Amino acid sequence: MSDKRKLFVIGIGGTGSRVIKSLSLLLASGCTLKGGFTNIIPIIIDPDNSNGDLMRTMEILNLYQKIRINIDGVDKGEFFNQKIQSLKSNNRYDNIDFRFFLKGVDTNTFENYIGFRNLNEDYTKSTDDKNFIRLLYSKKNLKSELKVGFKGHPNMGTVVLDQITQSETFKYFVDKCDKDDAIFLINSIFGGTGAAGLPLLLKSIKSQEKLKNTKIGAITYLPYFEIGKKDPEIEAADPEEIKSNSFLEKTKVAIAYYNRTIIENKELDSIYFIGHETNSINHEYEHHIGANLQKNDANFLELAGSLAIFDFCESPKKTENKPLVKEYGLDKSFDGEIEFDHLSKRDRDVIERNLACFKVFSDYLLEEKGLKRALGVSRWTLDRISSIGGPKYKNSTLTDSYFEGAEYTSSVETFIHHFRDWLDEMRKNYPAFAPFPKTCNSKDALRVLPGKPFKGFRSIDRENNRLISSRKIWPHDTTKVHSALFRLFEHSIRKFVSK
User: Can you list the domains of the chain with their CATH numbers?
Assistant: First the structure.
């Protein structure tokens, strides 16, 4: 089996985007997929092209690519060690879109998309019939604008998403997927896009002769949040179509369908289920139909869902003629906040040390008493470093000009802001994931995990000063502008933050 396998991660709808975001941030911290998967190819399917969750994920994916291509020779377990590519990437940073674009959704209502106006009112005079369509879709369904998605109606989503399998992009995907590659699908079962997309896409994949024996997994989200209500006056004039009290009913119907089709027909190697009892008293998301306002706070369940991908990659392809069905659970019950010791040992091994290291890295670069205090003072930030017995390198790249330059500020700094926002949003959400101290103390910054020494940013500075002359820090390819930064901190931080 090849040690350069591709993993196609297909996120369907808003939940799909948010899980791919979590996966990307875990990979940035050094988490590594097992099973020989070196290339991760995310594909996002969402008719709402301006969806806030989608756009944020798109930015993170593009920044990941841009940063990684500028780091020389990353190894397994190091920051940004896994390669993320777009479907049509040619192995370099190309800023190609990760979305699967759907035609005819930006300017059409559903009735225009299906050609409803061209149908006949009198079935006795034609082979088509408007009245039959009215039995399947409400008036509001027909008038609904597709550019903001399917508003929780999978019966609409199925019709529009059917175009995917006929597209050139789908054919390109089939052609690019080799025999040792794998596919992982992400959807929610209680919405519109995700609930409609998974069965349809899976059926289309399995119908391809080339993909019949491809390893395929999926995670399906049960309800895990609630949607707030509109203002009463607005609601009276325009009743909302997405209601939390319909989530459970939709879930029951969809699971029954999945059981008698996807699972009974053995169309997957592994299927994962995850959800959490919702409670509007604790937390509910603002009600937005779609577009840029629909940008929900990160939720621990999206992080937990991304861990299913790690499990899937290291699990062997099914040998029995039935899919492996798994549900996510914690090892310990929690009261208020989830911490690392609530997770299973496998999950802790995947994320604990890596997230802790990247947390220290991001804190150091952004906090007032970290980089700002060291810049121009600590040896590792000075132009000339060869005067203290180092190799024949006279200039450091990690000076004011680097940290003030566009390559750093627009990519690295922006990316670590996304990482910190992600942690902060999960800490404030329900259920809360709060494995680290709420505030960063520069004198105690390395005590991110229980039992670690009381050391702070000055310890990192001293270690950086010692390492900056080491040949293992200096990149072989000096055009890779972020190599010195990531190599240096990879070694200095991981020395202190260990299991």
Answer: 5-102+150-329 (3.40.50.1440), 109-144 (no CATH), 353-497 (no CATH)
